[in-house]
Design a protein that fits this description.
The complex is a heterodimer of chains A (116) and B (107). Chain A has 116 residues and is mostly beta strands. Chain A is built from no helices and eleven strands. In chain A, the strands form two sheets. In chain A, strands 2, 4, 5, 6, 9, 10 and 11 form a seven-stranded mixed β-sheet that branches. Chain A is globular. The model of chain A has no long low-confidence stretch (mean pLDDT 97). In chain B, the strands form two sheets. In chain B, strands 2, 4, 5, 6, 9, 10 and 11 form a seven-stranded mixed β-sheet that branches. Chain B is globular and about 35 Å long. Chain B starts with a strand and ends with a strand. The chains are: A mainly beta (116), B mainly beta (107). Chains A and B meet through strand 5 and strand 10 of A and strand 5 and strand 10 of B.
Chain lengths: 116, 107
């Protein structure tokens, strides 16, 4: 069965960077698309961007350009998102989700807390 | 960016009641509209894709309709397990955008 397993919660200091992972199983990762999302607890969801695992091609929400960098490692069927120059406004839950025209499988989410 | 407006923000309904949630886009989204259910502390769960297609394993009491800028999610007979927040998502153009959500509670 399809599974997306995200890394654990992160507590990071302002100005630092963090790399989140999304390990997949149960489907052919190397020819798939993955998107990432941000959700501040109690609020709506924002689409950050997507990556095609076949060639690493990416597309970003303009709002997150320079903040998020998406990469993949096809040898381990894992997608990554780097978040840089973190501020308190980046504190949120981040989700990965497989895109097959629509987002059918999601990771469990990871809470990132930015605090000194 | 396409703005998605959901209404109502909060809805209280009884078990067995028919419930209708609405989502309006700021421009035509050509039926590229999905509905998600999110329970507290969980990831969003896909219910409906492309306006009216029921995702695998989703109960038939959920249905979707709409076109152009106006879309609807209907729960034909509300069940206790349907208590959640519901989000619409447009995939017509980047950046994909969500509505603010409708929080559904039991009366």
């Amino acid at each position: 069965q399809v599974k997306l397993q995200q890394s654990g919660a992160e507590l990071v200091k302002p100005g630092a960077s963090v790399k989140l992972s999304c390990k997949t199983s149960g489907y052919t990762f190397s020819t798939s698309y993955m998107s990432w999302f941000k959700q501040i607890p109690g609020q709506s969801i924002e689409w950050i961007g997507m990556i095609y695992a076949g060639d690493g091609g990416t597309g970003y929400n303009q709002k997150f350009k320079g903040k998020a960098t998406l990469t993949v490692d096809t040898s381990s069927s894992t997608a990554y998102m780097d978040l840089s120059s973190l501020t308190t406004e980046d504190s949120a839950v981040y989700f990965c989700a497989r895109e097959q025209l629509y987002f059918d499988y999601w990771g469990q989410g990871v809470m990132v807390t930015v605090s000194s | 960016d396409i703005q998605m407006t959901q209404s109502p923000s909060f809805l209280s309904a009884s078990v067995g009641e028919r419930v209708t949630l609405s989502c309006r886009a700021s421009q035509n989204i050509n039926k590229y509209l999905d509905w998600y259910q999110q329970k507290l502390g969980e990831a969003p769960k896909l219910l409906i894709y492309n306006t009216n297609n029921l995702h695998t394993g989703i109960p038939s009491r959920f249905s979707g309709s709409g076109s152009g800028t106006d879309y609807t999610l209907t729960i034909s007979s509300l069940q206790p397990e349907d208590v959640a927040t519901y989000f619409c998502l447009q995939r017509n153009s980047w950046p994909y955008t969500f509505g603010a959500g409708t929080k559904l509670e039991l009366k």
